[in-house]
User: Fold this.
Amino acid sequence: MRNIFACVVAAVLGGCSATQLPSGQTAVTYAVPDPSWIAHKAQSEDLLYISDQGGRVYVFTYPGGERVGMLTRFRALGGLCSDSNGDVFVVDTARQAVLQYSHGATRPTHVFGASGYPQGCAVDPTTGNLAVADYQAAQPPGPGNVLVYNRMKNMRSTIYTDPSFNQFFFCGYDGRGNLYVDGVNAGTSQSEFAELPKGATSLRDFKLNERIAYPGAIQWDGTDLAVEDLSSDVIYRVRVAASSGRVVGSTHLDGDHSTLLTQFWIQNNVIISPYGKLPRSVHRAGLWPYPSGGSPKKVLEPRGDVELLGATISVHQ
Assistant:
């Protein structure tokens, strides 16, 4: 599984030629024309966005699953996230940036430069701050980090590092503004987890009472922290206190199993995630009941995709 993900990252990094925005720079308007399209009726519906490693984001009605649009001209995509206003944030790993789209829009309103090669993102529901998990630092190349854009400070950024992590994968805020991140260390690729408590100035590591072989997405489900184990397609529900996390439940997602790094999204009582078969075949996205799991209740196949990676819901206001 590590070798598979290394191939994905190598392909991404090899194609990167964009100029990154320096850490601390504010977000800027992004005005490159593109052939993206969104059906007019999509403006008044909740929308499901699914990212494709091939440089596209597919847009479906939610929960209906009708294809109503596509965002294009990305280089190599990571995960997705969204906020309570319906804004969608698209992680373009190769461009070293996160692009912000309004609900149903075909052009981004802002671009946020990463300090390295980003993999995941999350928005703080209490402040609107944007967190970005960088898989690897860019200049000079080295361990990854977490970048937080502060909405109250004109979206200026702060970088957080952690010596326990070599690679950061995904991040997620809880309802109180605490940030959680996952990844792996440098020596054994052991799973690592950390919290940035609201108002804190450094990441704080925590250990789980059960082993997660290889971490995927991490997200707050409204009550607990949901953490994915890519080796088994299980979502663990975790409660964190101080330096420890206790598993209080699990959700098994039945279906084909790929073990590639993917990012799920939880919307109320539904979990949405790309899935597929080994070795590099993630061409479907499933909708499962949460937290019961089991078989997917709906399956979406974008057709023409390269490798699906992330999902998020944009709620119509």
Summary: The radius of gyration is 18 Å. Residues 2-14 form the longest helix (13 residues). The chain has a mean pLDDT of 88.
